[in-house]
Amino acid sequence: MAEAKRIEGAPIAERLVARVAEGVAELKRTRGVTPGLAVVLVGEDPASQIYVASKGEQSRAIGMHSVTIRLPAETTEAALLAEVAALNADPAIHGILVQFPVPAHIDQLTIQDATHPDKDVDGLNVINIGRLAAGQHGLFPCTPVGCMVLIEEALGGELRGKRAVVVGRSNLVGKPIAQLLLRADCTVTICHSKTVDLPQVTRQADILVAAVGQVEMIRGDWIKPGAVVIDVGIHRILSRMPKARAAGKMVVVGDVAFREAVQVAGAITPVPRGVGPMTVACLLANTLTAAERLSA
């Protein structure tokens, strides 16, 4: 059997960003509105700083109004809530994203629910979670939306009737991707750590989404031949190659054992360069959608 097709996220994300840029230009021309994205960073987590810088650069590159608010790690929850309230009231800001994780003394759920649902471009406010479950329009989490774009690309847009299995039940990825697959008329199973005979369940999947957060948990013989496999996991581990390992070289892997899975699947996302590029692209798309709705 030939190796699976690689579902490379970068070129698909670039096409989506190009469409968003066109939408930004159209909104400016027809309504005089510049979509505004505000990103709030609390503390100095190195990975978060990189993500925030990337979001700012990409939003400015397509003509959006971009604001980055950097707060010290000792910022109180009340002070952060005040920042969010000010952004909720700012007509120049259409999308608000508080970069998580936040310091331990701040409750993430409180911050999520303080963000106005119509500006919640992360899709984590309980109102938007409810809208997703109810089949209504809303702003939905960027990574699951990006996964759906990749799945549609792999299947030519035809998902109806497919059997989908999601491994992982987080509010950030597992639950929302299951809801999105259900909207696309898939038959959906959600698996987790208590699932009995997990490999037997995953072998039934035409579409398999791995979002469990465990290094290479999904093995090649857990996959149905020809399935579409979306690997959301990302982990930095020591290389398994003896010389590289001895030198302390780190490599990035996912929740799927790629070298095994690529021999069985029909299409699969690599890690990195698979799901990752789609997240920021979908954030920009959500910001444009929010600006269009708020300026209607």
Known CATH architecture of the largest domain: 3-Layer(aba) Sandwich
CATH superfamily of the largest domain: NAD(P)-binding Rossmann-like Domain
Strand order of the biggest β-sheet: 1-11-8-7-5-6
Helix content: 40-55%
Radius of gyration: 20 Å
Low-confidence stretches: none
Choose one word for the global shape: globular
Domain count: 2
Strand content: 15-25%
Structural class: alpha/beta
Q: How many DSSP helices?
A: 11
Number of strands: 11
CATH class group of the largest domain: Alpha Beta
Protein described:
This protein has 296 residues and is α/β, with parallel strands linked by helices. It folds into two domains: 89 residues, Rossmann fold; 137 residues, Rossmann fold (3-Layer(aba) Sandwich). It is 42% helix and 16% strand. Strand 2, helix 2 and strand 3 form a beta-alpha-beta unit. The longest helix has 23 residues. The relative contact order is 0.17.
Keywords for this entry:
296 residues, alpha/beta, Rossmann fold, 11 helices, 11 strands, globular
Compile the SSE list and pairings:
Elements: E1 5-6, H1 9-31, E2 36-42, H2 46-61, E3 65-71, H3 77-89, E4 95-98, H4 108-114, H5 126-134, H6 142-155, E5 163-167, H7 174-183, E6 187-191, H8 198-202, E7 207-210, E8 228-231, E9 235-238, H9 242-246, E10 250-253, H10 258-261, E11 267-268, H11 276-294
Parallel strand pairs: 1-11, 2-3, 2-4, 5-6, 5-7, 7-8, 8-11
Antiparallel strand pairs: 9-10
Summarize the structure in short:
The chain is of the alpha/beta class and 296 residues long. It has helices at residues 9-31, 46-61, 77-89, 108-114, 126-134, 142-155, 174-183, 198-202, 242-246, 258-261, 276-294; strands spanning 5-6, 36-42, 65-71, 95-98, 163-167, 187-191, 207-210, 228-231, 235-238, 250-253, 267-268. It contains 11 helices and 11 strands.
